[in-house]
């Protein structure tokens, strides 16, 4: 199977090879992480950490916003180190590559390092365009080299760091597929075949039944087998409470208004998105205090899982390297090793446990809906029920949940969401409806601008310059589409 080019017509390879990507997922080996040397039956608990890395693309390569070149925010930081925290730019550069240095060193010591990585497509593109080839080369070594690849598990994500609850359903699917294209073009199809887990931007999980169903259906259709979820974004369907045994895998089941259902394995990430938890390797120390639990009549080790930004904050820049090395050295060969999630799941299922054995969860607040209507009652009755619940309880919402409960991805950002929706609508009218081939340069150019405009930063970082950036990229996307 031929490998994919990294760039096509000057843009990252984000579309046009759908058949190759789907064939890679369909023909991949069942087990990809079984040779790591850790045996589930011989340990009492385990810990997993994931590092999330992202930099948006911004129209800041020049003084005139309307004509400025689209560059990585990291490049802007490096060129304007006198502003805010931009002096951290070179430290960020090292953060993006350092796992590729840590792993060979620790393997050379005879240790068992483990880490999961999630990099947005906009970061991949920005690093390459900046000429930071050292980052991608170093990561490529631990991703593809048989001596190291069992230690590093890559997680899929939306290419442009789009937040699922407020991104049009059809566009979110494009983000997922674009990331798979880009990753395969960087690290090869074999490496893509080992990507099983998905890491959602801002840990946001849609809870509107129809949106949540479409979201999980997209992930399953694209070959993902498990998803990271934040503990307070899910509930037990029988009582609406949070998960009981948070450190065991669950089965997230999503039902829609048409009566369809889809499920995926959910790995519960506990607590807030505090970088200190990963920088100080808290999951390992929590796991050390645990012993084996019962699941489906079998004794299994719990897996304590946590994710954090891999570069933001002094703790990640300064404390994480030393603590990671200390914990890898201490945990290797112990009763509480570090493990990656897919490695853990492969061994769990090899014990005879099946996905059907896992305790069930659903997106938060859905119990209140299904207590009133049945899945399959239709979209009109669903919307009526949601409106009634909102009227009765101001805390009830269908905007999804994320790592923090006090952020809405919708309210207060109409001036960005309006242009985003216009760009999305135009993409449908000009590209999808007339069935423009995904290999067409016009398709790729429009998709690049659409996905870049849907980056969460244009909302999360508040009103002001960032919303100006978001609107400008939407304008460029719309102009590109209107000219077709």
Walk me through the structure.
By secondary structure, this protein is an alpha/beta fold. It folds into two domains: 14-362, 7-stranded beta/alpha barrel; 410-484. The chain has 19 helices and 16 strands. It has helices at residues 18-27, 73-79, 89-97, 99-108, 121-129, 133-144, 169-187, 189-192, 209-221, 275-279, 282-288, 314-331, 341-350, 366-370, 379-392, 414-432, 441-453, 457-460, 465-482; strands at residues 7-8, 11-12, 46-53, 57-61, 69-72, 115-119, 152-156, 197-198, 226-230, 234-235, 250-255, 261-269, 293-295, 298-300, 303-309, 360-363. The protein has a ten-stranded mixed sheet with strand order 10-16-11-12-9-8-7-6-3-15. Strand 4 and strand 5 form a beta hairpin. Helix 16 (414-432) runs parallel beside helix 19. The protein is globular and about 65 Å long. The two termini are 34 Å apart. Residues 401-413 have low confidence and may be disordered.
**Overall geometry:** globular
Estimate percent helicity.
40-55%
Can you tell me the CATH topology of the largest domain?
7-stranded beta/alpha barrel
Structural class: alpha/beta
Number of strands: 16
How are the strands of the biggest sheet laid out side by side? 10-16-11-12-9-8-7-6-3-15
Q: Quick one: CATH class of the largest domain?
A: Alpha Beta
Strand content: 5-15%
Extract low-pLDDT stretches: 401-413
CATH architecture of the largest domain: Alpha-Beta Barrel
Secondary structure tally, helices = 19
Give the tally of structural domains. 2
Tell me the major beta sheet: 10 strands, mixed
């Amino acid at each position: 199977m031929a490998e994919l080019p990294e760039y096509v017509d000057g843009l990252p390879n984000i579309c046009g090879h759908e058949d190759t990507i789907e064939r890679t997922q369909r023909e991949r080996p069942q087990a990809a992480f079984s040779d790591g040397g850790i045996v589930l039956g011989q340990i009492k608990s385990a810990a997993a950490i994931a590092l999330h890395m992202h930099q948006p693309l911004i129209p800041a390569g020049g003084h005139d916003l309307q004509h400025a070149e689209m560059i990585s925010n990291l490049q802007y930081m490096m060129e304007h180190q006198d502003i805010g925290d931009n002096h951290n730019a070179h430290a960020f550069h090292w953060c993006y590559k350092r796992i590729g240095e840590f792993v060979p060193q620790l393997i050379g010591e005879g240790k068992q390092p483990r880490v999961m990585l999630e990099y947005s497509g906009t970061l991949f593109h920005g690093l390459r365009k900046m000429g930071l080839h050292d980052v991608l080369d170093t990561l490529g070594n631990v991703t593809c080299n048989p001596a190291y690849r069992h230690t590093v598990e890559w997680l899929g994500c939306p290419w442009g760091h789009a937040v699922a609850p407020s991104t049009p359903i059809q566009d979110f699917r494009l983000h997922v597929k674009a990331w798979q294209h880009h990753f395969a073009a960087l690290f090869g199809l074999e490496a893509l075949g080992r990507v099983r887990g998905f890491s959602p931007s801002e840990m946001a999980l849609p809870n509107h039944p129809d949106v949540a169903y479409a979201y999980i259906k997209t992930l399953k259709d694209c070959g993902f087998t498990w998803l990271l979820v934040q503990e307070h974004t899910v509930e037990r369907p029988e009582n609406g409470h949070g998960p009981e045994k948070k450190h065991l895998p669950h089965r997230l089941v999503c039902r829609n208004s048409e009566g369809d259902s889809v499920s995926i394995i959910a790995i519960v990430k506990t607590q807030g998105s505090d970088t200190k938890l990963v920088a100080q390797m808290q999951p390992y120390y929590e796991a050390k205090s645990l012993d084996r639990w019962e699941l489906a009549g079998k004794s299994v080790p719990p897996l304590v899982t946590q994710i954090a930004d891999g570069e933001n904050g002094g703790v990640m820049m300064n404390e994480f390297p030393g603590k990671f090395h200390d914990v890898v050295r201490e945990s290797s060969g112990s009763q509480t090793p570090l493990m990656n999630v897919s490695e853990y799941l492969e061994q769990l299922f090899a014990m005879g446990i099946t996905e059907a054995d896992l305790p069930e969860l659903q997106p938060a607040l859905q119990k209140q809906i299904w207590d009133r209507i049945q899945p399959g009652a239709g979209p009109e009755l669903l919307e009526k029920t949601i409106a009634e619940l909102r009227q009765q309880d101001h805390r009830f919402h269908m905007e999804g949940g994320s790592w923090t409960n006090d952020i809405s991805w919708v309210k207060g950002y109409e001036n960005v969401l309006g242009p985003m929706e216009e760009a999305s609508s135009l993409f449908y009218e000009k590209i999808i409806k007339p069935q423009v081939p995904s290999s067409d340069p016009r398709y790729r150019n429009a998709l690049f601008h659409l996905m870049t405009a849907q980056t969460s930063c244009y909302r999360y970082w508040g009103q002001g310059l960032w919303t100006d950036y978001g609107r400008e990229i939407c304008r460029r996307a719309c102009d590109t589409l209107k000219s077709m």
